[in-house]
UniProtKB/TrEMBL annotation:
Protein name in the entry: NAD-dependent epimerase/dehydratase domain-containing protein
Biological processes per GO annotation: S-adenosylmethionine biosynthetic process
Pfam families, alphabetized: Epimerase
Molecular function GO terms recorded: methionine adenosyltransferase regulator activity
Gene Ontology cellular component terms for the protein in this record: methionine adenosyltransferase complex
Gene3D superfamilies: NAD(P)-binding Rossmann-like Domain
Sequence ranges assigned to domain NAD-dependent epimerase/dehydratase in this UniProt record: 81-164
Amino acid sequence: MGHQAANGSSQAKPYKFLIYGETGRIGGVLGRLCQAQGIGYAYGSGRLENRESIFGQPGVRQLDPSLQRHKRDGQAQRGLVETIRANMVGTLTLADLCREKGLVLINYATGCIFEYDSGHPLGSDVGSFYSKTKAMVEDLLKNYENVCTLCVRMPISFDLSNPRNFITKICAYEKVVNIPNSMTILEP
């Protein structure tokens, strides 16, 4: 498997993916999928908001947003700042650096549907602070010609013991609203 160079010639060099978010559910699934398919990949270890670390030592380990909701007092504010750094500053920095290097960025991340119909326009209720940062960065990424955003919605898997599985989460809700929505099946 190879890719085509900008000048149209075919190169034998195979694709290699740089995956950020190794400790997250989606980053972990993507790594396992690449490994199972024999696709080259590496997990990053640098901070996304630090431009110098992104391509020097690839990567970042992001905080789990579900953990940030449970922090108290000063820790809660620090969680908000970390969410901004990871979801907005880091993502925009990566998009900008990829653009400078002529690389395509596939922003495969959790996202929300921010409107259900014409009676619920964008801004009427984008949900949690985490969702707001995702909505803002998605809107800004539309200006980058090298970015393709793919949103994961309500990730489900066959593992019902996984606390990040949407089916596991929704089973614990006191009230469930019956509104049509989309879901993403995550299985390596």
